[in-house]
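Input record (Table S2, row 336):
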Amino acid sequence: MNIQEKISLKDFTTFRIGGPARYFCTVKNEDELIEAVSFSKKKKIPFFVLGGGSNLLVSDEGFPGIVIKMEMEGVTFSDDGTVTAFAGENWDKLVEQTVDRGLYGLENLSLIPGTVGATPVQNIGAYGSEVKDTIESVHVLDVLKDEYKDLSNTDCKFSYRNSVFKEDPRRYIVISVTFGLKKDGKINAQYKDVQEHFTFKKIKEPTLKQMREAIIEIRRRKLPDVKDYGTAGSFFKNVIVSTSKAQELVAKYPEMIVHPVNDKKVKIPVAWILDNLCGFRGVKKGNVGTYKNQALVIINTGNATAAEIIALAQKMVDGVYEKTGIEIEPEVEYVI
Ligand code: NAP
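Output record (NAP complex):
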């Protein structure tokens, strides 16, 4: 395995921002992964595992340790609907293959950028599905104990855009993920955008393929193409607040959209607050801005630095706090 030095990380992230990695390597199998982790232990430097780079903001100074680019590939389909994919596989290609085989479970997560290995880390979710709903187990390298392990769905401690991998970021490296998919599943078309899409297309009972096509069409309309702008998608997580906090806000802003999670908690779309209360949709300042169709998405319109992105993000945090008293948190991971 070839360990390179001072490799710019800019071209490895969809934000197209970031300084150099002190050391950089790509790993295609478990032996190379062990070698890379040993290197970091021997040199007493941190490691960072890079997948598609689609949810990252790398600092302008770069990363002082070793960046391990995960390129382990391979997918196995079993007759019972179980699918195991290595961490370096492209996520949307996997979703496409499952839909082509008539397997239900991943279709609402179509077109999410990035690799399979990143999906359990932040428990990716979209249009009423979360990847935790289909994950059976995650095969990992436990860096602390120097051993391979299979973590069950429960071991992964999944919650809203969160997991044990995010809570304890240097402990596990995801090697492969096993999904339990259904041959006779049901379509989940509950989200407004999806319902409107099928009403417009006059489709009463969408097929699995039509569901994937719908998600692709909706996402293409609402989210920027990374070919046009550097971006890491939604920059902030949506917020979950107590029912009483939500009632207080709805009394102040009657048109505010809220989605009950259970009888104690309510989810509030941060994009709505940023757009309607703070006027942050489609803003542009220097080399950074927010996308014209989605205020949660920060974009690099030119040659932005990480510092410029962070300055805009801080203004958005302050704006939301001023209007609502809510402290929003980044969904994007900072690499410093
Ligand atoms: P949207 O559909 O307008 O929804 C905005 C917010 O309201 C989200 O927090 C969503 O929760 C919630 N919501 C909407 N309808 C809901 C329902 N029927 N029941 C419960 N909660 C509901 O948002 P959007 O920006 O156009 O995004 C569409 C989907 O793609 C969302 O699921 C969003 O999370 C996902 N997405 C993720 C990223 C990313 O980078 N992580 C980027 C773009 C979109 P959920 O977030 O739980 O769905």
